[in-house]
Amino acid sequence: MATARVLPVAMLVLAAALIAMWFLDRPKLAFVGEADSTQANDMADEQPWGPLNWFHNDVIIASHKTYPLVLMIGFCGYGNVLLRKECGDKPYPNWLFGYPICFIAYCYAGATASDIMFVPASLRAMSSNMVFCVFTAWYIIIQNSETVYRFCLQKHNFIFLTTWWLCDATRASLCFLERSVSPPWVAHQKAVFCRGVWQCFIWCAAGPILRVTDRAIRGEPLPKLDALQPNSLNILKFPLVCMFWNMMFYMVYLWKFTDCELFSDSPHSKSMVQCGVEHPEIYAACTYVPCLLHLGRAYHQLYFGSGKMVFGDTFCMGACHSRG
After folding, report:
1. Where are the alpha helices (DSSP H) in 26-154?
2. Most distant CA pair in the chain: distance in Å?
3. pLDDT tens-digit series, residues 223-233
4. Separation in Å, CA 16 to CA 3, 122, 304
5. What is the pTM of this model?
6. Which residues pair with 323 in a beta bridge?
7. SS3 letters for 194-228?
8. C-alpha to C-alpha distance for 253 and 251, rounded to whole angstroms
9. What is the pLDDT of residues 133-152, one digit of tens each?
C-alpha cells in the first residue's frame, strides 16, 4: 500500500524534472562526435513538416549531433523491462544493486564498454542529466508497477518497444563506430580500420556478457552460449548478428563507396565522423533496415513460428520463455 501511494507522487516529481531538464539541456550535445550540424539543419528547414519528415530529419538525422529524447525514452524502457523479465517477472532483489546493474548491463552496456575501451574520459552515458532522469523514471515505474510492466509485455506493445529500442541502439552503434575509428577528441587522428572491427565486437557482445554476469551474481542458472547466441551468420534470423554486420557494412561503405578516403594517407582524407555526417542517406538506411527486419522477424515468429517474444539484441534467455 505504501508503494502504491508513493509511486504517483514520485512520477509527478520525475515528470517535472524531466520537462525541466528537456528545456535546460536542449542545446547540449551528448553521445555524438564533433561534427558540423549546419548541413542537417538546412536540410530540415527545406522539408515541409510532417510526422515522417519530423522523424527522419529531427530524430534520426539529428541523432548524429544530439541524443533525441524520443529515442532515449524507448531505449531505457526496453532495458528496464528486460531486467524485470530476466528476474522471472519480479522486481530486482536489491534496489541498491539493481539500479546501477540495470543501467550498465541492461540499458547502456554497449555505450559503457565502448567508452571504457576507446574514450579517455568519463563515461558519457553517465554524464547526461537527461539520461539520468529518463532512466530513473523507467526504473521506478517498471520495478513498482505491475500494470505498466504487463502492458509493455503485451505482444504488439512489446514488438513496438523492442523496435523502438533497436532504432536507438542501431543509430548509436553507428555513431560510436565513427568515433572509435576516428576519435574526434584527438586532432588529426588517422582513421584505423581495426579499431572499427573491435568496436563492432565490443558493442554487440557487451550486453549479453554483462547480463549473463548479472545472472551469475543473482545465483540463477546460466544459459548455454549456443542458446544465448547460436553460432550463425544469419542476419535475417538473429538480431545481434544483424547489428554486427550492419556496423561492418556502414564502415566499409564509407570507406569504399564515398570520396572520404578513409584509412588513407591522403591529405584530403576525412574522419569517419565527418564522412558520416556528409552522407546522411546511408546513416539513415543503416538505421531503418535493421528495424524493418526486426519487425518482420518478430511478427513471423509470432504468427508462423513458436509464438515466443523476440528480444531486440538476443533471443530469449534465462527467465524469458513465456509466450507473447
Report:
1. 38-46, 51-53, 69-86, 95-101, 109-118, 129-144, 146-153
2. 68
3. 888 888 889 99
4. 20, 27, 44
5. 0.83
6. 308
7. HHHHHHHHHHHHHHHHHHHHHHHHCCCCCCCHHHH
8. 5
9. 999 999 999 999 999 999 99
Grid cell for residue 255: 570507406
The CB density around residue 57, as the number of other CB atoms within 10 Å, is: 21
Vertex 77: Cα angle to 183 and 82 (nearest 5): 95
DSSP secondary-structure letter at 267?
Answer: T
What would the grid cell of residue 310 be?
Answer: 523476440
Q: Report the distance separating Cα 307 and Cα 286, nearest Å.
A: 28
Q: Is the pLDDT of residue 323 over 80?
A: no
Region of residue 188 (left: phi > 0; alpha: psi -120 to 50; beta: else): left
If phi > 0 it is left, if psi is from -120 to 50 it is alpha, else beta; for residue 315 that is beta
Q: Find the Cα–Cα–Cα–Cα dihedral 267, 268, 271, 275, rounded to 10°.
A: -170
Between the alpha carbon of residue 278 and those of residues 143, 245, 263, the distances in Å are: 42, 22, 17
